[in-house]
User: What shape does this take?
Amino acid sequence: MICDNLSAIRAAIAEAARRCSRDPDSIELVAVSKRMDRKKILRAAECGQTVFGENYLQEARDKIESLPPALRWHFIGHLQSNKAREAVRLFDLIETVDRWKLARALDRHAAQLQRCQEVLVQVNVGREPQKSGVLPEDAEELLRAMSGLAHLRVLGLMTMPPRAAEPQECRPYFRELRRLGETFAARGLFADNTRVELSMGMSADFAVAIGEGATMVRVGTAIFGRRS
Ligand SMILES: *Cc1c(COP(=O)(O)O)cnc(C)c1O
Assistant: This one.
């Protein structure tokens, strides 16, 4: 079941990439395993999936420490600054940096752990008051400040658009994130301004996101089924 789902999604990613003349290998599938048990994650790993996304630190720690060390983990939930150390210890990429206090805490702990922590800046392109993410007009200032943090590598941007009835409704938000990425890359604000990561698109709308330039898609239910 999970293997079939993964094959179908990989095929759909390749098809979406072909439609806009992109290399399918330039798009990373992040399997969102929040509230899925170890057995399901292991099953996905056996089917070749290596990158997983988790939203809750405590839940993630139990999984990460008991699953094969070769797996890679992205943090995609809301992160409190007082959990920064644990997040640096556990995650290869933290996708949800959205404020200076958090960035500074991550940098400090990365320094202590002698690591260079890869991160994305989460942008609230839908301007939803209840959602995490820096507002588009505040993103540049945050990125400029973060460029002075020696132990963080800002690879790109991440967003979660407003909930929509139709995948196409998300297109303007994905497009805005790509434009922001291009603008900030032109100003030299990322670790590698020739290859800016854009994490956008979930089970319902990853094909639309790929059409707008997504380099990482975060897919949960379409791989693992509904969360309990
Ligand atoms: C849960 C979650 C996803 C995956 O959503 P699905 O609709 O299950 O694919 C992606 N990104 C974030 C930030 C999430 O919290």
About this structure: Residues 32, 34, 55, 76, 160, 202-203, 218-222 surround pyridoxal-5'-phosphate (CB under 6 Å). The CA atoms of residues 119 and 154 lie 5 Å apart.
